[in-house]
Amino acid sequence: MVEFFGEKLAGFAFTQNGWVQSYGSRCVKPPIIFGDVAWENPMTVKETAYAQSKTKLPVKGMLTGPITIMNWSFVRDDISREQIAYQLAYALRQEVEALESAGIGMIQVDEPAVREGLPLKEQDQKGYLEWAVKAFRLTTCTVQNSTQIHTHMCYCEFHDMIDSIIDMDADVISIETSRSHGELIQSFEENTYPLGIGLGVYDIHSPRVPDVEEMTRMIDRALRVLDPKLFWINPDCGLKTRGIGETVASLRNMVEATRLAREKYALQV
Predict the structure, then answer these.
(1) What CATH code would you report for 3-264?
(2) Could you tell me which residue ranges the Cobalamin-independent methionine synthase MetE C-terminal/archaeal domain spans (predicted)?
(3) Annotated active-site residue in 150, 159, 181, 205
(4) How many angstroms separate the Cα of 49 from the Cα of each of 54, 106, 141, 223?
């Protein structure tokens, strides 16, 4: 998620053997931000535009957000992390604009690591969240109203930062809920979110294929609180760690659970 973009942005360097454990047996090589970050050429436009040319359905552009890139990199210490986040935001904004110019009307700016960067000292947390939200909005603020902005967060406690999530002003936010068994939904009972919400209905970090019934239970639990017209059904996270067999089987079950939900709640797409 980070190395791909870092290789295409100015200001990044990479090691050959600087592996860091992510989780379990999964390891990553965090890039080194040594200089000013800048966009040089389109990074994802060619592939995304090609995919869009093969279907009449919308294809989503996918970018890693500025805070996640920063938090998953070794950063320079001669300027503040806030300044680095803004440099990343300005660079990524040019990619967002390039995707939009190529006809991509749905763009996701992933921010799974926003919570990871939250300072341990409570008095520092408000300031961090303020500039983290600002960096996200700098990334997306120039698109047309017709372009739908998505973001995604996973496997964190979000209850005490719901207001900041709302302030990010994404048209759709997708959040992990399968491991917490929908506990996060309680936050939306207390804080109305006026835009689209996608709650993950199965755990992609497990090889187990979830059945339709358990995903249906998660959907029904969410729709006791959320507006069905604004609800998105999706996996918890990306599928790159899963094999093709389990991926296809899980997605087929998810599609069937979605079909049943549309029938139950009389929704049309």
Answers:
(1) 3.20.20.210
(2) 1-259
(3) 205
(4) 9, 12, 21, 34
